[in-house]
Structure of Glutamyl-tRNA(Gln) amidotransferase subunit D:
Amino acid sequence: MRPKSWGWISMSERLEGKRVRIKAKGKIFEGIVMPSFTGNFVLKLDNGYNVGFKEYELLEVLEVEPFEPHLPELVKREGLPDVKIISTGGTIASKVDYRTGAVTSQFTAEEIASEVPELTEICNVDAELLYNILSENMKPENWIELARHVYKALKDHEGVIITHGTDTMHFSAAALSFMLSTPKPVVFVGAQRSSDRPSSDAAMNLLCAAKAATEDIGEVVVCMHGSTSDDYCLVHRGVKVRKNHTSRRDAFQSVNAKPIGRIDYPSLSVEWLSWRYRRGERELKLTDRLERKVVLIKFFPGLSSDILEYYHSKGYRGFVIEGTGLGHVSTDWIDTLRRVCEDSVVVMTSQCLWGRVCDRVYDTGRDILRAGVIEGEDMLPEVALIKLMWLLGNYSIEEAKEMVKKSVAGEIEPTTQY
Amino acid sequence: MRPKSWGWISMSERLEGKRVRIKAKGKIFEGIVMPSFTGNFVLKLDNGYNVGFKEYELLEVLEVEPFEPHLPELVKREGLPDVKIISTGGTIASKVDYRTGAVTSQFTAEEIASEVPELTEICNVDAELLYNILSENMKPENWIELARHVYKALKDHEGVIITHGTDTMHFSAAALSFMLSTPKPVVFVGAQRSSDRPSSDAAMNLLCAAKAATEDIGEVVVCMHGSTSDDYCLVHRGVKVRKNHTSRRDAFQSVNAKPIGRIDYPSLSVEWLSWRYRRGERELKLTDRLERKVVLIKFFPGLSSDILEYYHSKGYRGFVIEGTGLGHVSTDWIDTLRRVCEDSVVVMTSQCLWGRVCDRVYDTGRDILRAGVIEGEDMLPEVALIKLMWLLGNYSIEEAKEMVKKSVAGEIEPTTQY
């Protein structure tokens, strides 16, 4: 018999994380109840495998011993660089959740080292749990707080790692790229599959991120799987990277730029693939204000330019448009654009994502430029959005109009890479 | 001396398309004035080359003989299939513009055949100039008119080709995919480089499109360069294709599906790469209403859900959200989503573009589903938008909620292709 649901909450969800004994298919099974994505009742058995059941009989909910880590104290190794790991939540931090039934990770250095012991051969780890939130809930306020914590950590560590949910990791990486001028590596890392799954990318990504954090890098980067195998990670510039797949482990790709480098696994040997800010090249500096009233609008055939008026009337002075092709919107947007451009910064990007905006080729584009719109060059729409939040938070409208065209953190390449 | 500009209109633009004689670099040049993308004064010389000048002296504006094509009359070849070419404008149709100085192409069958004579070996061409507009100016009204013209043409032709600007070609292809059930091929084709440039893709794309229009296909497709070389075109399903580069000739890619086929050039041999609707498989049927009050909203960290209320209060009942990752928005959107879902259809897609939406994995996703949002599976956001315009134009809200989850024109693949 399959237990019925109470309203929206199924039996399986009420038992999530608990140890149970059930009868199914004529046998007895014991294990931890896992979140069910399919409507099945899923158990993690002691051998590590997950098994799903359509029909089962619940025999017993077992008491679990309170989680006592008993982890050995970490001893600092001489000669290894100090690296700070700041956790913000997401799949990569959900490691411990269903192993013990505990839903929230403690995220101590000892815990991380016991999960991924190879880390201690690369660096001396400090750990800090800043947030435990899903990355779709990250807000500009969180970026500011995170930037301040990273700024502080950079003063007495050789590098900083930020574990982050993958949904908005590239937004956060772009935000920190603008807010922080850093002489040391700041490495975002996440996982597409949680650590309780055999295909998890959490440990390998973290090891490669630790390697990156000790390397000759002086900028904010994202380090994630470079292929669907466990053979290498890629290090992407924080302002040129995008999540381009909902579930693949190699979902993160550099767009309109080569990745900065490649870190082979398990050798952790590094190959540089592009130019980069080097360690010590820039001074440590925090410029951490962000203007919230900036909006990204994706154009489509038939979309009325009223949406520009709507945001403008609410006090928005920063607009990023995701236009078509080389950077176009319908001709009937031009009048509204001209009015909005009088006291606002409007940046044109392309929903093609790859390639460079060029509004000098066709009539519509030239009209858009005459209206006062600024070409976003080869910037990703998401990056242009955050750049504008940062510019309008720290500079005047006129300064922002000049600076948005120029590369601040490597977000504009001089020529487009194919 | 470089002629000064009058307001926004430069001398070069006033002369565009006219034949002139100038003095520059100590020599005399004669040719047709081309649109200038760089601020230079550009002449197309009689040998076909374009030359740009920074400084020049205008000597004479020459009268041009009225354009007399003197084209041989096309004779229908027995045994070749009849194909209708409908022109809507865009780069591919700009072929004739600056060859003669005429700004608008006549777009007769004779003209096309004289430009691309190999066409007459593939099919007997009929031609119709429906629009001459840049594709960023296409509107849902144009899709309806276009669908009606194609519907009519399909009755007495073996296939239909639509020449179209590339900016929104994939939107138009998706629109016709839903509006037209077709037993014959309907082939969209465009060019990324206009025919007066040596690197133009116009002729090859048109020849491959003609081949596709005579093949065993019974659906709406897009036929464009498959690589940056002139070696093959790909035939993409109209509801699985997207322009993914601002300028590359192979900008169009199938997303979350394999292309239907590959047409080698110049052999025009066809290789099928995926399933397809076959010729004669479906009845000819036109379902051509579209609801305009449907909107696509791209989510980003910090975006307020007020935007949903704004459109809802204006009578919008169709919403496509471009969420993050597997299909997420911030948790503080849930209450608004629940209210909007009461009388509207809200579809979740992913700004990752590649991969499938799955809101059953994480808490936020499950909350989104409970609010009444429907998973857009592996549909592109743009395709989900147009599908919803079509569903709400022709069916009730309740019917639309059911149909949006099911594949109508091949827009949802049973499993995601990697």
About this structure: DSSP finds eleven helices and 21 strands in chain B. The first strand of chain B starts at residue 19 and ends at 24.
